[in-house]
Please model this.
Amino acid sequence: MDEMELMMHLHLNNERQGPGSEATTLLALQLAQIDRNRSYKIADIGCGTGAQTLTLAQSLQGEILAVDLFPEFLTKLEERLQSQTLTASVTPICASMDQLPFKAGTLDLIWSEGAVYNMGFQKGVTYWKDFLKSGGLLAVSEISWTTSQRPQELEEFWNGEYPEMDTASGKIKVLEDAGYKVLGHFMLPENCWMENYYEPLLKSHPRFLEEFGNCDKAHKIVATDLQEVEFYQKYKDYYSYGFYIAQKP
Ligand code: SAH
Model:
């Protein structure tokens, strides 16, 4: 089994596969100046088991195309949505974020929490822009430095993990250079990381190792998670997830 698939199994029973919260999804919706009485065609890209899909489907009207590479995540998402009262319809779509099965200029809103790094921020926001109508909105969360001065050990760690790591001003420049009008941004607070993401993730390690512990890669994934959590606790002043909200003119 490859590393991505192992990670899918590790994260499958969790509510979130990355840092986030209902409150920050709602804040991003507010910054996007969404009209709750209008009907939107939305893509939620890299939706995972659908934490933010659920919030969107309870807050907006229209249709949400929930896209992920793993059908297992989409099945969880469907199970989760069944017991809820929703104002938008949700269609799960198994596809890769860099080969979206949509027509150009057809989406009102592209949402993506903690996922665009899989194709890279610049490549992702540039490619996705074609699918937006003019006036269409983009709301994307992405790991970001909170300051230009940070410890070298931390810098080296994240440069190894994700070379596109940058400050909010750097991310905003990428959006501006791609031709977006930037509407707003904010940094996710600590509870999005610890309570909502890392704590449930750490709790899912024993079961994961029970099932996949005969595989070296599984132990490596757990070790990397532990290092990531340790780094977060030590250096959380220097980075977070930034939420970026922008519009295609
Ligand atoms: N938005 C969710 C999940 C974030 S984790 C949350 O915040 O909880 C990133 C997600 O991107 C995972 O669900 C992973 O399966 C998905 N993903 C990774 N590579 C992808 C690709 N190439 N195309 C579509 N989805 C992808």
